[in-house]
Amino acid sequence: MGYLFLAGAIASEVIATLSLRASEGFSKLGYTAVVVVGYVAAFVLLSMTLTRGVPLGVAYGIWAAVGVAAVAVLSIPLFDEGLSVTQVGGLVLVVLGVVALEAGGNH
To answer: CA dist 31 to 23, 37, 104, Å?
Structure first.
């Protein structure tokens, strides 16, 4: 159950971060509201993840890696941003680091 809350935390954080970009310096109130609600929801859900036994290092690692990768990939079609080969390589390394963190943990 903890990992379901983690998935919700990641989704909330990604939506909030993309809305932060879309808010254009908090000048668009609708997006600004999504930023605030999204980040609050992300931290509440992350807290619920931790209270259900998911280790902090694993939860935060997954949250950070998936969040960074999702925002980077979704920024391409949403904001016409791009990723260089080096940036793609960096994202792969981040994901591999989280996999190593999870694989090396005590279960």
So the answer is: 5, 10, 39
